[in-house]
Design a protein that fits this description.
Length: 116
């Protein structure tokens, strides 16, 4: 039986991004050995979208109140990299990780599967 999902983010500054996940996002974690941190994620969902291009994967964080979350991030000095856009399925933006990578964030307007 499947017991969970493991998401991998590839980073050009893994230590800084790990510290961001630990200190700014405040995700608890464990040392998987040798200082290799693995973090607990909030409840998750997976969706499969059609594409005409090559297959790819995306990772988005979800929140209940995007405006409040962005205010909290701004107070911690986190860069918001995209203006909030209103989509059919939710309100979308992104934040900057210390490595320079973007991490999308959205407030879903669709029914949620993670509580099933």
């Amino acid at each position: 039986m499947i017991s969970g999902a493991h998401v991998i983010l590839y980073s050009q500054d893994a230590e800084a991004d790990r510290a961001f996940i630990r200190d700014v996002l405040a995700f608890p974690g464990v040392d998987a050995g040798g200082g290799w941190l693995v973090f607990k994620l909030p409840p998750a969902e997976v969706a499969v979208h059609p594409t005409d291009g090559p297959p790819q994967h995306e990772f988005h964080l979800m929140c209940d109140d995007l405006d409040s979350q962005l205010g909290e991030f701004r107070s911690k000095g986190v860069e918001i990299t995209r203006p909030v856009s209103e989509q059919r399925w939710g309100r979308l933006t992104a934040i900057r990780l210390p490595s320079g990578a973007e991490l999308p964030l959205y407030e879903p307007l669709h029914p949620l599967a993670h509580g099933l």
